[in-house]
């Protein structure tokens, strides 16, 4: 006796595809809003570490259980944008309570006579007038790696980034090629 062929049901097929699409959209939403942050770097302020036009992925989970550390590269809400829609990518230089002095193109932490070792800088920072910063509690001081071409905390009206404005720790670049960011 021949097997009877089941008839194709368009309605069930469409409902099945809608469920798949909705599930994928929910997963993407959750990943993008709670697990990872995706950002495009529009300027050369972080060169040679991150180049103009690079796309980076950051972990939103990095700072749920710990605090940013000096040297971390982070994605954050630009403190001078009242809308909170502008994201910046910079390196954490100052931690809460730090005293930062910039003299003769070098960064000094907490009244040290020895400048901060910054092997990631592509070139020496051009000397500019001496500057003194005292990082408030729950805030961080950010500088770009390409100091001579970076609109960073030295140039902002609001010099410090509050911890709750930090979105993610940058982990790697995925475009134009994959590279771990340190």
Structure commentary:
With 182 residues, the protein is α+β, with helices and mostly antiparallel strands. It has a single domain (10-177), classed as Umud Fragment, subunit A (Ribbon). Helices cover 14% and strands 30% of the residues. The protein is built from one helix and eleven strands; from the N terminus they run H-E-E-E-E-E-E-E-E-E-E-E. It has one helix at residues 10-35, and strands at 36-40, 55-59, 73-77, 87-94, 99-103, 106-109, 131-134, 139-143, 161-162, 166-175, 179-180. The strands form two sheets. Strands 1, 2, 3, 4, 8, 9, 10 and 11 form an eight-stranded antiparallel sheet that branches. A three-stranded antiparallel sheet has the order 6-5-7, with no helix packed on it. It is elongated, with a radius of gyration of 23 Å. 25% of the residues are buried.
What is the H/E order? HEEEEEEEEEEE
Oligomeric state of the chains?
single chain
Domain unit count? 1
Which range does the strand content fall in?
25-35%
The tally of strands reads: 11
At CATH's second level, what is the architecture? Ribbon
Task: Report the sheet with the most strands, covering strand number, pairing sense and barrel closure.
Answer: 8 strands, antiparallel
The CATH topology? Umud Fragment, subunit A
Helical stretch tally: 1
Radius of gyration, in angstroms, nearest whole number: 23 Å
Class inferred from helices and paired strands: alpha+beta
Share of helical residues: 10-25%
CATH superfamily: Umud Fragment, subunit A
Mass-distribution shape: elongated
Given this structure, which CATH class is correct? Mainly Beta
Ranges where pLDDT stays below 50 over 5 or more residues in a row are: none
Round the mean pLDDT to the nearest integer and report it.
Answer: 93
Distance between the termini: 69 Å
């Amino acid at each position: 006796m021949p097997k009877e062929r089941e008839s194709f049901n368009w309605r069930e097929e469409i409902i099945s595809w809608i469920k798949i699409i909705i599930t994928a959209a929910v997963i993407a939403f959750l990943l993008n809003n709670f697990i990872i942050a995706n950002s495009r770097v529009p300027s050369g302020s972080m060169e040679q570490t991150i180049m103009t036009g690079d796309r980076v992925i950051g972990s939103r989970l990095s700072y749920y259980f710990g605090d940013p550390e000096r040297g971390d590269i982070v994605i954050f809400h630009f403190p001078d944008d009242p809308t909170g829609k502008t994201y910046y990518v910079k390196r954490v230089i100052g931690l809460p309570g730090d005293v930062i002095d910039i003299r003769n193109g070098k960064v000094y932490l907490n009244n040290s006579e020895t400048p901060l070792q910054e092997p990631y800088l592509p070139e020496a920072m051009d000397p500019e007038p001496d500057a003194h910063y005292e990082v408030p509690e729950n805030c961080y001081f950010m500088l770009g790696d390409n100091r001579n071409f970076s609109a960073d905390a030295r140039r902002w009206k609001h010099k410090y980034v509050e911890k709750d404005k930090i979105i993610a720790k940058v982990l790697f670049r995925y475009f134009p090629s994959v590279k771990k960011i340190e």
